[in-house]
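Q: Is it fine to ask for two folds in a single conversation?
A: Yes, each is treated on its own. Send the first.
Q: Here.
A: Result:
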Amino acid sequence: MNEDFQKNYNQLTNVLEQEVKVYRSLLDIVRKEKEILVSTNLDDLSENNKAKEASLIRLRSLENQRIHFASEVSMALDLDSENPRLLEMAVALGNAEGERLRNLHSVLDLLLKRMHELNKNNESLVNSALNNITGALKAIKNTLDENPTYKKKSVKVEGKAQSGQLVSREA
């Protein structure tokens, strides 16, 4: 292999290793997010979201680099450089370099699957909390709306005061 190929290959593997590190830290952030959601500490949740956003921005940058170097390596291996695939490159290389790409691919794939599962669980926690809050607010609203003290035209409604009524009918 020529020198340019080796340089692009090394840069590709370095970017992939950096992505693995960032994905691992992002996985820790998502795990911590679940604990924060359960504890309902909004300040910690805000800080966690900022860390998550910073990690995602870093990943976008690394992903652009990965696409560039993967295209270069694919072109050198006479593979589809428009849609570079790590596993195709690994098969084309076939040696220790190919095995390294296979390993990095499997690690990234596993991290993404774990993160997807955790995000799904966190989403269900958030949706459950929102449903509980919405239900409680509707119950409060219904309790207050069902027993108005006055009808239109300021006519007093006859009847006994009930719980949940904020204003007594008797002055």
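Q: Second one now.
A: Result:
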Amino acid sequence: MMNQFAARLLPGAAALCLCLSACGGGSAPKSYDPKTTAQALLDSGAFTDTLEVLEADVAAQMYGIDGETITDCAVYTSLSMGAEEIAVLTLTDETAAQTAKTALEKRVSDQITALESYMPDEVGKLNHAIVEQAGNTALLVVAADADKAQSTLNGLK
């Protein structure tokens, strides 16, 4: 009788353990380190344009982000007026990071509008832009090879 009871209890106990282990161990999205992330992207070969560093205050103004909320950043834009760009922003908190992500999404939309009539080849890059928020960081990557850039980002997580 005890063996029958154990046989009936075992599948339910196993299912309960699986449920509990699936609920536990979840972690918040890992934040990106601006310098490390930007350098890995630059080294990835995903970009065809030469990129130039932008200072934090210039980047904040360009993206329409309150500069007081940016605690660290690495921002690179194309020297050729092309669409290629890297922005890795550390912000004061997750709310500021979400606001920054929205601003970065707007940047992509604005760039598509600005470039579609005179640099249509660049619009393809913008259509594959990577915009993410992880923890208190926001990220924008517009690369010639979006798959290579995404693979690089995946390797950093």
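Q: Anything structural to flag on that second result?
A: Two points. The CA atoms of residues 22 and 78 lie 43 Å apart. The beta strands are 51-54, 70-78, 85-91, 130-134, 137-142.
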